[in-house]
Amino acid sequence: MKLIQCASVAIVATLASALLAVAALADSKAATPCEIGSYRLAGGASLDIGPASPGQLRWRLEDGRTGALKTRANGRWVSTLGWTDRPDGHHVTFSDCDRGEIRFDNVPGRREALVQVDTRFQGSGVELAGRLTMPPGDARVPIVVLIHGAEHDSALETYSLQRQFASAGIGVFAYDKRGTGASGGRYTQNYLLLAADAIHAMHEARRLAGARAGRVGYQGGSQGGWVAPLAARIEPVDFVIVSFGLAVSPLQEDREAIEFDMQRAGFGPDIKAKAMEVADATARIIETNFNEGWDQLEAVKRKYGAEPWFKFVRGNITSYLLSGTPEQWRKDGPVLLDGVPAHYDPMPVLSNLDVPQLWILGGQDRDAPPFETLRRLTALRNNGRPITTAVFADADHGMYEFETLADGERVSTRQPDGYFQMMRDFIHGKQRASKYGSAEMSAAPGWPGAARPVD
């Protein structure tokens, strides 16, 4: 079961587990299951098969449906819905890998002959591992560079978009951010340094694609929403896509998340004001690199810990500070949040960015609530910035729809229909649908075909 997890400023794993995950991913390539790839089904649908938990695979369709595959007798894989443990009735069989054949619910398909080139390239003072995945043929195609969130995972091993976009006629450059996967250097959340690495990745993507490179731009999720626009401001590209990112600072993100916690739980302004005292304390801890603020946080816990609203405080980083010990966080926090610019203001960059942008946000995003971000993006668009926004009302962080369990936790079921298609069309620069699923869109003039902003 995969509960929706924050992939923004607050990395939720402990340092030990993060380091173990990095070591495992760096050594995993030789053991990559041969079934992983992009398949074209009879009738034209594209099906992605990617890695999942050990011994499992994950299937994804372009409409956002997904499930985990577990092997059964006679080579038949059976599926469970999203990240739940509930069977969804789907099943898959594979031929031997050399033949590249598949049957999804008895619909035959064949592996697509995507072209992949692995590379090592120089980032900003560090060597990074990357991969260009191209659709077959020699036609000129747009290129998208995928920018990490705050996760420690290897993008080369885990990012399904590198195959999904390529299957849709788009070249894709994925790379392991510094300190993750097969890349060198130390993990950091320094946005300027990560933006410099992204620019180097864009150069490497252009170099490898050669004459096939058309439009080139970035797609960044969560923390990538701070990094991608910054990279595009330093060196312009043709487009930027931000998925579940923010136009506020990391500390503002945490405060807005706590306010959203209180709103969802049905509490009013007086309780929100009390909850902000918790946010003030955790902000002080972050601002001082985990050295100060602990006494203030303990005092707030003593003051309000027994009140009914306190158990609903989640926030972003706050929930992890509340659940851990000061000793643990003094040791692990500076490494997990290394370089994070807590007061980073993205507005000067966004106010001066002429690159066309698509911002896709989740209306139920608990980790990165979109409300102030939408207000700011709307103001920028009305002032002439080329920004299109889209909100999927029922999506949480990571752009996942979900079910709510009896204990209040959420379990992801799928991504919204229209999410992938919208990104695909923005990268191609062509509107192919009058509506993208349930998305509420406000389009900048000129893309995708809108004559004026619609708010």
TrEMBL record:
Keywords linked to the UniProt accession: Hydrolase, Signal
Pfam family, one: Hydrolase_4
Gene3D superfamilies on file: alpha/beta hydrolase (3.40.50.1820)
Domain of life: Bacteria
Coiled coil (UniProt feature): none
Domain Serine aminopeptidase S33 positions: 143-235
Signal peptide start and end residues: 1-26
SUPFAM superfamilies documented for this protein: alpha/beta-Hydrolases (SSF53474)
InterPro entries: AB_hydrolase_Est10, AB_hydrolase_fold, Hydrolase_4
GO MF terms held by the record: hydrolase activity
Protein name stated in the entry: Alpha/beta fold hydrolase
